[in-house]
């Protein structure tokens, strides 16, 4: 793309973005600006690179867990990461490796195929330009819709804590500002009509996750939850009893399980790294029964 063409498209994309932002339409302005930047990247990479990126995502979805399971012993051996933390680290490594290898191999194949075909190469760049714009704009709108979905949970958390929005943490203020800009945008009715997060029940899941995390950070609340009938029934399971025994034998976990208020977040982090917790989560039956028990508590 020539310099004159770059200047032309920069004016096409960023002039409306500046105009919209100056009139308070921050969401659409951000979508147009992000789409413009992504369009230039798409032109440089071509549509085929974006397609190879999608192929890498599919491979991660299909084979990612198998690869992460194979990497977990190495994460423990070389990085000292175990439990859920080790699983997350392994999944991250597999994600990066799959994308790098797919883009490297696919990119070489594409370049070899298009090298002597200038018309196809031009079409690849132009289609990448269009696809890049759509990808950038849709990403901004999707993120905005997701933030709007979790905003009520943040507001409830602040209300229960007796904290004003002005005194909230910086990241909470940013999320609430994004949600407010989304709700007042001209695109809000369309986002509400095609709200994927609402169909996935994301607000309820986020609120449940926040309550569970807050409970796990408080040893006294953990003791109260352990006496709930749903949890008592779940603890009768042999695999759960075995995991609880391993946790009691761990010097770092024993105070947390006994209700020691000094345990707090450190014990929670240790629980995330404990292999016994990961074995339970890997059991489909436990996940189903635990979800039902958490729902009964809520």
Short description:
This protein has helices at 3-22, 26-45, 47-79, 83-114, 118-161, 170-183, 188-193, 196-199, 202-216, 219-226, 229-234, 238-249, 254-258, 264-273, 275-281, 284-297. The protein is mainly α and 298 residues long.
How would you describe the overall organization of this protein?
The protein has 298 residues and is mainly α. 84% of the residues lie in helices and 0% in strands. It contains 16 helices and no strands. The chain has helices at 3-22, 26-45, 47-79, 83-114, 118-161, 170-183, 188-193, 196-199, 202-216, 219-226, 229-234, 238-249, 254-258, 264-273, 275-281, 284-297. The model has no long low-confidence stretch (mean pLDDT 77).
Keywords:
mainly alpha; flat
Q: Which SSEs are present, and which pair or pack?
A:
Elements: H1 3-22, H2 26-45, H3 47-79, H4 83-114, H5 118-161, H6 170-183, H7 188-193, H8 196-199, H9 202-216, H10 219-226, H11 229-234, H12 238-249, H13 254-258, H14 264-273, H15 275-281, H16 284-297
Biggest sheet character: none
Give the averaged pLDDT, no decimals.
Answer: 77
Strand content: under 5%
Helical percentage: over 70%
What separation lies between the terminal Cα atoms?
57 Å
Please tell me how large the radius of gyration is: 24 Å
Number of discrete helical segments: 16
Low-pLDDT sequence parts: none
Shape: flat
Order of helices and strands: HHHHHHHHHHHHHHHH
Task: Give the total of beta strands.
Answer: 0
* Global structural class: mainly alpha
């Amino acid at each position: 793309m020539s310099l004159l063409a770059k200047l032309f498209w920069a004016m096409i994309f960023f002039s409306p973005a500046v105009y919209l932002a100056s009139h308070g339409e921050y969401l659409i302005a951000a979508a147009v600006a992000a789409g413009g930047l992504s369009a230039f990247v798409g032109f440089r990479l071509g549509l085929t690179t974006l397609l190879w990126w999608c192929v890498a995502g599919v491979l991660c979805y299909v084979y990612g867990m198998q690869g992460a399971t194979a990497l977990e012993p190495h994460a423990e051996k070389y990085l000292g990461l175990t439990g859920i933390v080790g699983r997350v680290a392994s999944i991250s490594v597999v994600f990066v490796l799959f994308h790098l290898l797919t883009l490297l191999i696919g990119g070489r194949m594409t370049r070899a195929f298009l090298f002597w075909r200038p018309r196809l190469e031009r079409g690849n760049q132009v289609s990448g330009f269009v696809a890049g714009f759509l990808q950038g704009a849709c990403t901004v709108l999707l993120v905005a819709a997701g933030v709007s979905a979790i905003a009520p949970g943040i507001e409830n958390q602040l209300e229960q804590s007796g904290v004003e929005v002005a005194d909230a943490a910086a990241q909470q203020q940013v999320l609430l500002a994004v949600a407010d800009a989304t709700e007042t945008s001209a695109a809000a009715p369309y986002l509400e009509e095609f709200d994927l997060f609402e169909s996935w029940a994301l607000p309820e899941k986020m609120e449940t996750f926040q309550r569970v995390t807050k409970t796990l950070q408080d040893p006294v609340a953990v003791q109260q939850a352990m006496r709930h009938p749903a949890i008592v029934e779940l603890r009768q399971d042999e695999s759960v009893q075995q995991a609880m025994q391993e946790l009691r034998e761990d010097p770092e976990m024993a105070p947390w399980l006994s209700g020691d208020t000094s345990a707090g977040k450190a014990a929670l982090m240790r629980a995330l790294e404990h292999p016994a917790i990961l074995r339970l989560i890997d059991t489909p039956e436990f996940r189903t029964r635990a979800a039902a028990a958490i729902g009964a508590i809520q």
